[in-house]
Amino acid sequence: MSLTQLVFWTFSALAVVGAAMCITRRSPVASALWLVQTLFSLAALFVVLDAQFIAVLQVLVYAGAIMVLFLFVIMLLNLGRAGPSDLKGPAGLAVATLLGGLLFFQLLRGATPSAAGTRGGNVMAQLQEEQGIVGAVARPLFSQYLIPFEITSVLLLAAIVGAVVLAKRKL
Amino acid sequence: MILDLSSSRDLLLALLPELVLTAWSLVLLLLIAWRHRTAADLRLAGCVTLAALASTAGAVWWLWWHAARAAPTPLAAMIAVDDFRFVTDWLFLGAAALTVLLSFNYLEREQLLIPEYHALIVFATLGMMLMGGGDDLIVVFLGLELLSVSVYVLAGINRKSAAGAEAAFKYFLLGAFASSFLLYGIALVYGATGTTGLRAIAAQVGAGAGGGTMLAIGLALLLIGFGFKVAAVPFHMWVPDVYDGSPTPVTAYMASGVKAAAFAALFRVLGEAFSAVAAWHEIVWWLAVATMVVGNLIALAQRAVKRMLAYSSVAHAGYLLVAVAAGPGPGSAAFLFYLVAYTLMTLGAFALLAAKGRQGERDVLIDDLAGLATRHPWLAFALAVCMLSLLGFPGTAGFIGKWYILAAATSAGQGGLAAALVLTSVISAGYYLPVIMAMYMKPEPSAEAHVGMRLGRLGYAVVTVCVAGLLFFGVRPNRLLDLARTGGVAGPPAPEAIPAAPAVSAAHAPTAR
Asked: What pLDDT is stored for residue B72 in this prediction?
C-alpha cells in the first residue's frame, strides 16, 4: 500500500467516523466538533487529489468560519449543556496534534511540484501546471461559471434580507 | 436573432430579463431602506414591484419577438434561450404580479407593514425564472435555492402568528432536506457524466457513457428533490401545514408560482438531459398515480377550505406529472397549457379565500360558505368558476388542460395514466362540488355570516383576471395552445442541429432576423 493510499484510507475513515459521531452525539457542541473533524479530513482528501487550494479553502471557510458560526449559535441558544463532553484529556490532545500535523505535512508535501508531478495523467496536476493552484479554481469560476457565481451573490442578498426580516426585533 | 452566448454582449442580451429584474430588486431594496414605516411606503414598494415585473415581462417579450435563439456551438451554455423559457417566464411574472396585487389589502389589514415582502417576492420570481430557463443543473439549483430562501421567509412573514412560524419552520427544514437530495443527485450525475450542463449530459448519455448505477441513483435523488418541491406523494407531508399556516397571498403564490417553477425545471431537466434514460418514465408513472389517488382521497376528508385546497394542489401535481410522464414531445404543450390554467384557478381560489376576513381564513369551513350566493353573488360565481375549473368542467380552462393532458398521455401510450386521471377527477368532484352546493343551495345561517367579507378593488381585479382567463381559455384556447406548442422543450438536441424552432417561431415574429 503506497503512502497516498494509506493517507486516503486514514482520512476517509476519519471523515466517516466524524460524520457518524456528529449525528449521534447528544451534546450539540460535541456534534459540531465532530463535524470539524469531518471537514478537516475532507480537506486532507482534497490534498490527496492535488487540490491544495480547495483544501485550504475548506479549512479556512468551513472548518474555520462556518464552524465558529455554528458554535456561536449553539452557545447563544444555550444548548451547550445537554451532555458531558465526548473528547477530553491528553489522549484527545495527542490525536488532535497528530491529525493537524498530518494535514500540515500533506499540505507541505503536496505544495511542492515534485510530489504533484509523480502522479502522471492527473487532471488537477496538469491544470495547475498551466494555470497555477489558484488559477485552476478562479478561471472557470469567472468564465464558464460566471452566471452561477453572480446568482450566488443574489442568493446571499436574498438570504440576508430574509434573515433581517425574520429576526430583527423592530422593523 | 441568433445569440452567440460566448460573446459577452449576446450573453447579456440573453440574460436581459433576469438582469432587469435584478436591477429592479436592488432599486427596491434601496427604496425600502429609505422608506419602510407606513402603509403608504408599503404601497409604494408594491407599485415599484409591479413596475419591475411589467418591465421584465417586456424584456422577455422583446426576446420572444425577435425569436432569440442561442447559437448551437457552445454545449456549456448556462441559460437556455427558447420559447419554453419565455412562456414560463411570463407565467411566473404574471403569478407574482397577481400575488402582489392581492397582497396590498391583505398586508394592511393584517398590520404587516413590511415592505421587504415585495423585495422577497421579486427575489423569488428571479429564482423561478432561473429555474425555468436554467440550462445547467447548477443554475437550476441556485434558482431553486433563491426561490426557496425567499419563500421560507415569506411563509413566516407574519411574526405574530404561531401558525406562520410553524409553517415557515416546517417548510424550511423539509425544503433544506429536499435541496440536499437534489444537490446530492446533481453531484452523482456529475460524477457519472462529467458535466452539469443539460445538453452535455444528454450528449454523454446518448454516447452511452455513464449509463450505470451512479447515473441512476443520481437521477433518483434528483426526482426525490423535485418531488418535494412539487409536492408529489409520498413527498407531500409538508403541504397542508405550510399552506395552512402561511398568509393566504403567500399560499396562493406557493401553490401557483412555486409549484409551476419546480415543474418547469423538472420538465426541462428530464426532457432535455435524461430523455434517453428509460428509468425515470416508470418512476414518474408511479409518482403520478400515487399523487393523484392519495391527493384526491385525502382532500375528500377535509372540512376546512384552505386545507382542502392544499390537498387539491397535491392532486393537481399528479395531473401535471402525467404530462411529464407523457414526455417532452406530446406532453409539453399540454404541460404548459395546464400550468397556466392551474396557476389562474389556484390564484383565483386563494384570492377569494383571502377575502374571507381578518385572521379568519384559516378556519373557514366549507359549510361556512353557506348562502354566499345570496349575499355576494359575484364572489360566489367567481369561486364557483374556480372550483369547476379545478374539477375540469367543460367550458373552463381546466377542462381543456385536462383534455390535452389526456390526449398527450394516450398518444404516448400511457393509457393507464389517462384512466387514472379520469377516475381521480371524478373523485375530486366529491370535494369541489360541496363548495358550490354550500354557496348556492344552502340558506345563510345568519344575517351576519358574511359580514367581514371584503375583497377590495385590487382583489376584485385579481379575481376578475383569473376568472376571465379561465372562461376565455376554456372557450378559445387556441392562442395559448399555439404559444404552448412552440414553447415545448424539443427534447435532446441532435448533435449539431439545435432547435428546429426558427421555422416555427418565424410565424409570429415578422421582424425575426
From this structure: 74
